[in-house]
Amino acid sequence: MTLVLDPFYLIVDNAAWVRRLVPLGVKLVQLRIKNESDAAIARQIREARICCEQHGAQLVVNDYWKLAIAEGCTFVHLGQEDLAGADLAAIRKAGMLLGVSTHDHSELDQALSAAPDYVALGPIFPTVLKQMPWAPQGLSRITEWKQLIGEIPLVAIGGLTIDRIPVVLDAGADSVAVVTDILRHPDPEQQTHRWIALTRIMG
Ligand SMILES: Cc1ncc(COP(=O)(O)OP(=O)(O)O)c(N)n1
Ligand SMILES: Cc1nc(C(=O)O)sc1CCOP(=O)(O)O
Ligand SMILES: [Mg+2]
Questions:
Q1: pTM higher than 0.90, yes or no?
Q2: Mean pLDDT of the chain
Q3: CATH code of the domain containing 188
Q4: Residue identifier of the C-alpha nearest atom 10 of ligand 1
Q5: 61, 129, 162, 183: which to mutate for ligand 2, most atoms within 8 A of CB?
Q6: How far is residue 60 CA from its own chain's centroid?
Q7: Which of 18, 57, 196, 199 is the most exposed place for a label (fewest CB within 10 A)?
Q8: What is the pLDDT of residues 107-151, one digit of tens each?
Q9: ipTM surpasses 0.95
Q10: Per the structure, how many domains does the chain have?
Q11: 82 is in an annotated binding site
Protein backbone atom coordinates (compact mmCIF):
# COMPACT_ATOMS: atom_id res chain seq x y z
CA MET A 1 0.00 0.00 0.00
CA THR A 2 1.26 3.50 -0.79
CA LEU A 3 2.43 5.48 2.21
CA VAL A 4 0.92 8.89 2.93
CA LEU A 5 3.71 11.20 4.06
CA ASP A 6 3.17 14.35 6.04
CA PRO A 7 3.82 17.36 3.74
CA PHE A 8 6.25 18.86 6.31
CA TYR A 9 9.45 16.88 6.82
CA LEU A 10 11.77 18.31 9.46
CA ILE A 11 15.40 17.15 9.56
CA VAL A 12 17.45 17.69 12.73
CA ASP A 13 20.94 16.80 13.86
CA ASN A 14 20.33 15.71 17.42
CA ALA A 15 17.65 14.39 19.74
CA ALA A 16 17.44 17.67 21.67
CA TRP A 17 15.94 19.28 18.56
CA VAL A 18 13.39 16.45 18.39
CA ARG A 19 12.37 17.13 22.00
CA ARG A 20 12.20 20.85 21.32
CA LEU A 21 10.24 20.91 18.04
CA VAL A 22 8.20 17.69 17.77
CA PRO A 23 5.83 18.71 20.63
CA LEU A 24 4.86 21.74 18.50
CA GLY A 25 3.05 19.44 16.05
CA VAL A 26 5.75 18.09 13.73
CA LYS A 27 4.55 14.73 12.38
CA LEU A 28 7.53 13.62 10.29
CA VAL A 29 11.09 14.12 11.53
CA GLN A 30 14.46 12.75 10.48
CA LEU A 31 17.33 12.29 12.90
CA ARG A 32 20.42 13.01 10.79
CA ILE A 33 23.45 12.75 13.06
CA LYS A 34 26.98 12.87 11.68
CA ASN A 35 30.32 12.20 13.35
CA GLU A 36 29.26 10.78 16.70
CA SER A 37 29.96 7.42 18.28
CA ASP A 38 27.53 4.56 17.75
CA ALA A 39 26.74 4.63 21.47
CA ALA A 40 25.87 8.33 21.36
CA ILE A 41 23.80 7.87 18.22
CA ALA A 42 21.94 4.89 19.70
CA ARG A 43 21.13 6.93 22.81
CA GLN A 44 19.76 9.78 20.72
CA ILE A 45 17.76 7.46 18.47
CA ARG A 46 16.12 6.00 21.59
CA GLU A 47 15.38 9.45 23.01
CA ALA A 48 13.94 10.63 19.69
CA ARG A 49 11.86 7.47 19.24
CA ILE A 50 10.28 7.86 22.68
CA CYS A 51 9.49 11.53 22.06
CA CYS A 52 7.99 10.78 18.64
CA GLU A 53 5.86 7.97 20.08
CA GLN A 54 4.56 10.31 22.77
CA HIS A 55 3.55 12.92 20.18
CA GLY A 56 2.31 10.71 17.34
CA ALA A 57 5.19 11.66 15.03
CA GLN A 58 6.97 9.43 12.55
CA LEU A 59 10.73 9.19 13.20
CA VAL A 60 13.05 8.52 10.26
CA VAL A 61 16.63 7.54 11.09
CA ASN A 62 19.24 8.67 8.57
CA ASP A 63 22.13 6.35 7.59
CA TYR A 64 22.26 4.18 10.74
CA TRP A 65 19.88 1.41 9.72
CA LYS A 66 21.41 -1.22 12.03
CA LEU A 67 21.06 1.04 15.07
CA ALA A 68 17.55 1.95 13.93
CA ILE A 69 16.56 -1.72 13.87
CA ALA A 70 18.22 -2.35 17.24
CA GLU A 71 16.35 0.60 18.76
CA GLY A 72 12.97 -0.56 17.46
CA CYS A 73 12.49 2.21 14.88
CA THR A 74 10.27 1.87 11.84
CA PHE A 75 11.71 4.13 9.14
CA VAL A 76 15.18 4.71 7.67
CA HIS A 77 16.53 7.10 5.07
CA LEU A 78 19.43 5.95 2.92
CA GLY A 79 21.49 7.77 0.32
CA GLN A 80 22.92 5.92 -2.64
CA GLU A 81 26.17 4.96 -0.90
CA ASP A 82 24.28 3.93 2.23
CA LEU A 83 21.96 1.85 0.07
CA ALA A 84 24.86 0.08 -1.65
CA GLY A 85 26.18 -1.08 1.73
CA ALA A 86 22.84 -1.89 3.34
CA ASP A 87 21.15 -5.24 3.87
CA LEU A 88 17.76 -4.46 2.35
CA ALA A 89 16.41 -7.87 3.26
CA ALA A 90 17.26 -7.24 6.92
CA ILE A 91 15.64 -3.79 6.76
CA ARG A 92 12.46 -5.22 5.29
CA LYS A 93 12.49 -8.22 7.62
CA ALA A 94 12.52 -5.77 10.52
CA GLY A 95 9.36 -4.20 9.03
CA MET A 96 11.07 -0.90 8.34
CA LEU A 97 9.94 1.68 5.81
CA LEU A 98 12.66 3.03 3.51
CA GLY A 99 13.27 6.44 1.94
CA VAL A 100 16.02 6.87 -0.66
CA SER A 101 17.88 9.95 -1.97
CA THR A 102 18.16 10.61 -5.69
CA HIS A 103 20.01 13.26 -7.69
CA ASP A 104 19.93 11.97 -11.26
CA HIS A 105 18.28 9.35 -13.46
CA SER A 106 20.71 6.55 -12.71
CA GLU A 107 20.23 7.11 -8.97
CA LEU A 108 16.49 7.04 -9.52
CA ASP A 109 16.80 3.66 -11.25
CA GLN A 110 18.87 2.38 -8.31
CA ALA A 111 16.39 3.77 -5.81
CA LEU A 112 13.38 2.26 -7.56
CA SER A 113 15.05 -1.15 -7.61
CA ALA A 114 14.93 -1.02 -3.79
CA ALA A 115 11.13 -0.50 -3.85
CA PRO A 116 11.32 2.58 -1.61
CA ASP A 117 8.45 3.98 0.42
CA TYR A 118 9.44 7.45 -0.70
CA VAL A 119 11.93 8.97 -3.12
CA ALA A 120 13.78 12.16 -2.20
CA LEU A 121 15.01 14.54 -4.89
CA GLY A 122 17.60 17.22 -4.25
CA PRO A 123 19.06 19.68 -4.06
CA ILE A 124 16.12 21.64 -5.42
CA PHE A 125 17.83 24.98 -4.66
CA PRO A 126 21.39 25.77 -3.51
CA THR A 127 21.95 24.54 0.03
CA VAL A 128 24.47 25.73 2.61
CA LEU A 129 24.20 22.54 4.67
CA LYS A 130 26.54 20.33 2.69
CA GLN A 131 28.62 20.39 -0.46
CA MET A 132 27.26 18.31 -3.29
CA PRO A 133 28.39 17.74 -6.85
CA TRP A 134 24.90 18.32 -8.29
CA ALA A 135 23.61 21.61 -9.62
CA PRO A 136 20.27 22.66 -8.17
CA GLN A 137 17.53 20.56 -9.75
CA GLY A 138 14.94 23.31 -10.13
CA LEU A 139 11.19 23.00 -10.14
CA SER A 140 10.70 21.30 -13.51
CA ARG A 141 12.73 18.36 -12.26
CA ILE A 142 10.24 17.88 -9.42
CA THR A 143 7.43 17.59 -11.93
CA GLU A 144 9.47 15.17 -14.05
CA TRP A 145 10.34 13.01 -11.01
CA LYS A 146 6.72 12.85 -9.89
CA GLN A 147 5.67 11.70 -13.33
CA LEU A 148 8.37 9.02 -13.28
CA ILE A 149 7.61 7.65 -9.81
CA GLY A 150 3.83 7.87 -9.89
CA GLU A 151 2.20 6.92 -6.60
CA ILE A 152 5.43 6.72 -4.59
CA PRO A 153 5.63 9.84 -2.37
CA LEU A 154 8.17 12.43 -3.54
CA VAL A 155 10.18 14.41 -0.98
CA ALA A 156 11.84 17.63 -2.16
CA ILE A 157 14.98 18.73 -0.28
CA GLY A 158 17.72 21.33 -0.51
CA GLY A 159 17.58 25.08 0.04
CA LEU A 160 13.90 25.07 0.91
CA THR A 161 12.54 28.10 2.71
CA ILE A 162 9.07 29.07 3.82
CA ASP A 163 8.63 31.25 0.71
CA ARG A 164 9.48 28.34 -1.57
CA ILE A 165 7.00 25.86 -0.10
CA PRO A 166 4.09 26.76 -2.45
CA VAL A 167 6.02 26.43 -5.71
CA VAL A 168 7.69 23.19 -4.63
CA LEU A 169 4.39 21.56 -3.65
CA ASP A 170 2.69 22.92 -6.78
CA ALA A 171 5.46 21.39 -8.90
CA GLY A 172 4.55 17.93 -7.61
CA ALA A 173 6.38 17.28 -4.34
CA ASP A 174 4.34 15.45 -1.72
CA SER A 175 6.52 16.56 1.18
CA VAL A 176 9.06 19.34 1.73
CA ALA A 177 12.18 18.61 3.81
CA VAL A 178 14.08 21.32 5.64
CA VAL A 179 17.09 21.85 7.87
CA THR A 180 18.56 25.37 7.72
CA ASP A 181 15.41 27.45 7.37
CA ILE A 182 14.31 26.14 10.76
CA LEU A 183 17.41 25.13 12.73
CA ARG A 184 19.30 28.34 11.92
CA HIS A 185 16.29 30.63 12.22
CA PRO A 186 16.49 33.14 15.09
CA ASP A 187 13.22 31.70 16.40
CA PRO A 188 13.05 28.00 15.42
CA GLU A 189 9.80 27.40 17.31
CA GLN A 190 7.99 30.25 15.54
CA GLN A 191 9.39 29.15 12.17
CA THR A 192 8.26 25.57 12.84
CA HIS A 193 4.74 26.85 13.52
CA ARG A 194 4.86 28.73 10.19
CA TRP A 195 6.02 25.62 8.28
CA ILE A 196 3.30 23.50 9.89
CA ALA A 197 0.58 26.03 9.11
CA LEU A 198 1.59 26.58 5.49
CA THR A 199 2.12 22.91 4.65
CA ARG A 200 -1.27 22.07 6.21
CA ILE A 201 -2.96 24.57 3.89
CA MET A 202 -0.92 23.61 0.82
CA GLY A 203 -0.22 19.90 1.31
C1 LIG B 1 14.73 13.43 2.94
C2 LIG B 1 16.19 13.31 2.67
N3 LIG B 1 16.63 13.43 1.41
C4 LIG B 1 17.94 13.34 1.15
C5 LIG B 1 18.85 13.12 2.16
C6 LIG B 1 20.32 12.97 1.88
O7 LIG B 1 20.75 11.65 2.14
P8 LIG B 1 22.25 11.24 1.73
O9 LIG B 1 22.40 11.47 0.28
O10 LIG B 1 22.56 9.91 2.26
O11 LIG B 1 23.12 12.30 2.50
P12 LIG B 1 23.25 12.52 4.09
O13 LIG B 1 22.00 13.16 4.55
O14 LIG B 1 23.43 11.18 4.75
O15 LIG B 1 24.42 13.41 4.23
C16 LIG B 1 18.35 12.99 3.45
N17 LIG B 1 19.15 12.77 4.49
N18 LIG B 1 17.02 13.08 3.69
C1 LIG C 1 20.93 16.67 3.62
C2 LIG C 1 20.63 17.08 2.24
N3 LIG C 1 20.52 16.20 1.21
C4 LIG C 1 20.28 16.79 0.06
C5 LIG C 1 20.16 16.09 -1.21
O6 LIG C 1 20.01 16.73 -2.25
O7 LIG C 1 20.21 14.86 -1.17
S8 LIG C 1 20.12 18.46 0.17
C9 LIG C 1 20.42 18.39 1.82
C10 LIG C 1 20.48 19.61 2.68
C11 LIG C 1 19.14 20.05 3.16
O12 LIG C 1 19.33 21.07 4.06
P13 LIG C 1 18.77 22.56 3.86
O14 LIG C 1 17.30 22.51 4.08
O15 LIG C 1 19.49 23.31 4.94
O16 LIG C 1 19.17 23.02 2.50
MG1 LIG D 1 23.26 9.21 4.02
A1: yes
A2: 97
A3: 3.20.20.70
A4: 79
A5: 129
A6: 7
A7: 196
A8: 999 999 999 999 999 999 999 999 999 999 999 999 999 999 999
A9: yes
A10: 1
A11: yes
